[in-house]
Amino acid sequence: MVSIDVPAFYREWATRSGDVLDAATGAGPGTLEDVRLAYRKFFQDTFPAPDGVTFDSVDADGVAAECATPANAVPGRHLLYLHGGAYLVGDPRGYRGLVGGLARRLRARALVPDYRLAPEAVFPAAVQDAVTAYRRLLEQGAEPENVVFAGDSAGGAMAVSALVAARDQGLPMPAASVAISPWANLEHTGATMCTLDGVDPSVSRAGLCRAADLVLGGAPRNGPLASPVFADTRGLPPVLIQIGGHEVMLSDAVGLAARLAEDAVPVRLDVAPGMGHVWHLLAGHLPAADKAVADAVAFAEEHLPAVGAGEGDEGLVRPQAPCFSI
């Protein structure tokens, strides 16, 4: 495995995120399509898909998506993963490294919606697409108790807000949810938005404010689906929140944990000292990332049905059905 220079990775990530913001506002020389493609290639080149996982394009009731199937998948076990990118950038292909690794560790088929992005599709388009993908997964026979939600950054917020929307639409709740570095408060009122601004290696308060303006399209920043720290989260399944100790989003992640706890939702908050945004991407290169991924998988497995003897054994190749029947 090629070693990754962690500080250099975060610097490059910050630069490419800035390029996306500039293109989205017309302030940069590149087109938004071009910078999105470059962003995807950066992620693909830095975090290639793992061996032993196949990737297929699927249609989730009109929402384009990708299904990642590890060879050791437990029949009927599903992960619905919501990628990050500030609702402006990112797609399933760029996330094959992280999602493929999670799917293989969890022994689950992973469905990754290619949800609509801003500024072409403003809030709440992404949340709507996430709920549509979950509904389709259930319609295709997935049992909710065998489904785990997860996501990072914007997707980490949707790992909660999409469940709020799904609950309000009468859909059954999945077994659990994992919110990685969630962008949970678009008002950006947490103390660490100031105290860690400039310490966070890839995310700044100014950049997040610019992104929020593009994403919301005039909707209020404190809307419950845009900012789940303000949501009524009663009835949601157990949630694990993982946040880095150097993230400007740290205080708002703590606020999200408090909101869930106040609504009697089982919640666990893990703070990784010294870590930056979505450090899980660096699994295999950074011990703290390996631990975070292992903790996320253990939390999910704690809330999923027990696996019978011989099911999903590492390295066991068995015929797999697609995420959706054709």
Measured by DSSP, the beta-strand proportion falls in: 15-25%
Strand order of the largest sheet: 1-2-4-3-5-6-7-8
Category from helices, strands and their pairing: alpha/beta
The top level CATH class name: Alpha Beta
Which shape, going by the Cα principal axes?
A: globular
Roughly how many Å is the radius of gyration? 18 Å
Arithmetic mean pLDDT: 94
Secondary-structure element sequence?
Answer: HHEEEHEHEHEHHEHEH
Strand tally, please? 8
User: Structurally, how many domains make up the residues?
Assistant: 1
Question: Which blocks of ≥5 consecutive residues have pLDDT under 50?
Answer: 313-322
The CATH topology: Rossmann fold
What does the main sheet amount to?
A: 8 strands, mixed
The termini sit apart by 37 Å
Q: Judging by the overall fold, what is the CATH architecture?
A: 3-Layer(aba) Sandwich
CATH homologous superfamily name?
Alpha/Beta hydrolase fold, catalytic domain
Count of alpha and pi helical runs: 9
The amount of helix comes to: 25-40%
Notes on the protein architecture:
By secondary structure, this protein is an alpha/beta fold. It has helices at 6-25, 32-46, 96-106, 125-139, 154-168, 192-195, 205-216, 250-262, 287-303, and strands at 53-60, 63-70, 78-82, 109-113, 147-152, 176-180, 239-244, 267-272. The protein has an eight-stranded mixed sheet, with helices on both faces. Strand 1 and strand 2 (63-70) form a beta hairpin. Helix 1 runs parallel beside helix 7 (205-216). It is globular and about 50 Å long.
Short recap of the structure:
This protein is of the alpha/beta class.
